[in-house]
What we know:
single chain, 145 residues, alpha+beta, Rieske Iron-sulfur Protein, 2 domains, four-stranded antiparallel beta sheet, 28% strand
Amino acid sequence: xxxxxxxxxxxxxxxxxxxxxxxxxxxxxxxxxxxxxxxxxxxxxxxxxxxxxxxxxxxxxxxxxxxxxxxxxxxxxxxxxxxxxxxxxxxxxxxxxxxxxxxxxxxxxxxxxxxxxxxxxxxxxxxxxxxxxxxxxxxxxxxxx
Length: 145
Ligand code: FES
């Protein structure tokens, strides 16, 4: 009888140790793989890019570039992205209505990038613009994307 109880205890202890060993192996595996998954998921931060616009734009005018539209009025220049905030189609500018219109699903944005209508939910990003000085033989604007 005494031997049977001891046998049951040793089995319980054996099962417990086997289960612990299994958990320990899983924990060690996860700890070792964590840096690998972090490395694989790492994306380098996007570097800012500067684009020169070599034009003098009159007040009320605009310049259509590949990635942005530069507007100029009496308050100065500003630039908004041409990438629609819905699914990323390239926006066109409708001069008569003074709106940016997405050809894909017809979202509309004002000149300052505010969303007016359509499936897009966010406003367009604005980019900083610096007017280049004419005395340095550089005419135009520097837009930082
Ligand atoms: S991509 Fe512009 S509204 Fe859908």
